[in-house]
Amino acid sequence: MQKVAIVTDGVCDLPQTMVNEYDLSIVPYRLFFGEETYRVWHNEKSTISLEEFCAKLRTVTKKNFPRTSLPPPGEIAMAFEEALQKADSVIAIFLSAAMSGIIQTAITVARMKFPEKDITVFDSKHTMVGTGIQALEAAKMAKAGKNKEEILERLRSLNSQVRTIFVMNDLRYLYKSGRIGGAKRLMGAAFNVIPTVHFQEGTINSLKAFRGESGLEAGMTALCTQILDHCETNDIFITHINHEKVAQKMFEVLKEKNKNGVNIHFSEASPIMGVYTGPKAICISYIGDFDKKWLG
At what angle do helices 244-257 and 212-230 cross, to 10 degrees? Predict the structure, then answer.
């Protein structure tokens, strides 16, 4: 039995191999299309595939516009019970409290159902792989035998350096979900302009709008080169929805210029991301410095 077990939620977008390797416990998130309910554990495990999700988006109406919902307390409790079978202490790393009520719900579950147990709920202040990359860092430390305070100290020191950057070809989905935040100023962007946004202090803020896909590719590959020079940990994640060409080019640039053995992870995103980004998007996440000037 290790000292600490790590719990995260279904927005994490960590692959199944990583979940297995680091023995993560996942609380599935719920996704709704009208009266239809689906559950998502990560980008490789859900009750609706990304292809099915995107097909539904093409016929969506106001009545069945997709939305997400935080997990019920019972499913959070189940994940805590599973984690407590593995370790005496549990750290639960969840989606930003500014975007979801899961942090407060999890704190209540821990207090009411596990009053004698050592459970700490940590606000990632991010979403998607921005949450997942923090859970991964904690899980690596847990597997290496670090104690709870060592892991929490590391998480706190890294949290302000976590970067989650999105390419969203259509901001209407983010607007309709009520999470547009500081990216609202890009809503009026001209035709064929592709916006990018990022997380700051748990909320979404605008970065830059690119003119066409060629401009986007140039800006995002320039960003990738800088990321490699400023990455503080050993992992960079790229996920995408129907944005294969630009995402693949970003991945190739990262691989080509990777001189320090950084792990570059590339995959499709989960349907959860599509609720907020629509059917064409990219997410890149890492831990390290960032300057929006890197986008050109």
Answer: 30
Instruction: Check which CATH number belongs to the domain holding 254 and give it.
Output: 3.30.1180.10
Give Rg (Cα) of the chain. Answer: 18
Backbone angles phi, psi at 125, to 5 degrees: 60, 25
For the residues 238-262, what does the mean pLDDT come to? 96
Last residue of a domain, one of 138, 159, 180: 159
pLDDT, tens digit, 9 for 90 and up, residues 95-126:
999 889 999 999 999 999 999 999 999 999 99
